[in-house]
Each structure stands twice: as structure tokens, then as C-alpha cells.
Amino acid sequence: MRHGPALPVGEGIRSDAERPLSVEGRRQVERIARQLLRSGVRPARILSSPLTRAVETARLMRACAAPGVEAEERPTLRPGSGVQKVWRLLGEKPAAESVLVVGHQPDLGGMLQALFSRPVPADLENFPPAMVCGFSVTDMSVPTASFLWVYRPG
Fold first, then answer.
1. Is 8 within the bounds of a domain?
2. How far apart are CA 149 and CA 139, in angstroms?
3. Residues 49, 103: contact at Cβ < 8 Å?
4. What is the reported pTM?
5. Which of 5, 34, 72, 149 is most buried per CB count within 10 Å?
6. Integer Cα distance of 94 and 153 in angstroms
7. Is residue 5 part of a domain?
8. Which domain holds residue 146?
9. Is 74 within the bounds of a domain?
């Protein structure tokens, strides 16, 4: 999942890392969380970039769609970390049934391109804020996956 829409740097927000979700960003994330809950998707683990907008997104997702699940901040999910580092992060612990990863662009679009054997549609590769997609991994030793679903904000 990409974090929800965030406020720009300025007016008390000193850096990109400190950018919080906008009011609309919070609404979009809460709508996506409710969609996941209605569809029966409940993350067993939540991993988040340590940037403010991603942490806030992870907390909202936890509150709405996965009460009782801790949201873990992981430096590996900072922008620019790369697909291989994220893949290794997912393989660190025994596989959970469902893991929600909250991160950034262009990393998420690049991850989708690396995981699927066929080209990813442009709207998925561009990965707009608050979009979440699900995929199934059968073998963690090889970064490949099968696409399951997508929920877009709006």
C-alpha cells in the first residue's frame, strides 16, 4: 500500500520525512481500510516506512482493518530502498497469512514490476496515494507473485 495523500513541506513541516497525511488523505485511507475489512482481508502483520505519512497510514489501517495487530516501522521501507531489500524484509520472519506493507513511490511500482512476469498496467505501476493491491507469493526464495486484487482511493 502506498501512504495516503500528504501535506506539502512548508508552514511548520520542515522536511519530506515529516509530512503528515492531509485531511483528505486520512479519509481515503479510512475508506480503503473499510473496503479491505468488508472484503475479508485482515493483515496479520503491518510493516511501515518510518516516514510520518506512512506511519499514520499504517496506524489508520490497523485501527480500521486490523485491530490488535502492531504496526512495525522499518527503515528498509524508506523511499529508495529497492525491491531486494524489501523482499528480504518480508522473508525475515515466518510467513504471515497476510502482510500489509506501507511504503512509497517509485519503490512500490518497481516492486510490482519485479514480482510479476508480465508488464504491470500503468495505473498500478504509478501507484497513486492510498492505493493497495494484494498478491500471493508461493515461494519466498524467488521474488514472484500472482496478482489478487486492487483497491483504489476515491
1. no
2. 19
3. yes
4. 0.92
5. 5
6. 31
7. no
8. 16-151
9. yes
Give me the CATH number covering residue 110: 3.40.50.1240
**pLDDT tens for the 154 residues of the chain, in order:** 999 999 999 989 999 999 999 999 999 999 999 999 999 999 999 999 999 999 999 999 999 989 999 999 999 999 998 888 888 888 776 666 789 999 999 888 888 888 876 677 777 778 899 999 998 887 777 777 888 889 998 7
- For the chain, what is the domain count? 1
Cell numbers describing residue 63: 485501527
For residue 94 the three cell numbers come to 515466518
Taking the C-alpha atoms of residue 76 and residue 79, their distance in angstroms, rounded to an integer, is 8
Residues whose CB falls within 8 Å of the CB of residue 37, separated by 6 or more in sequence, listed in order: 64, 65
Grid cell digits, residue 149: 486484487
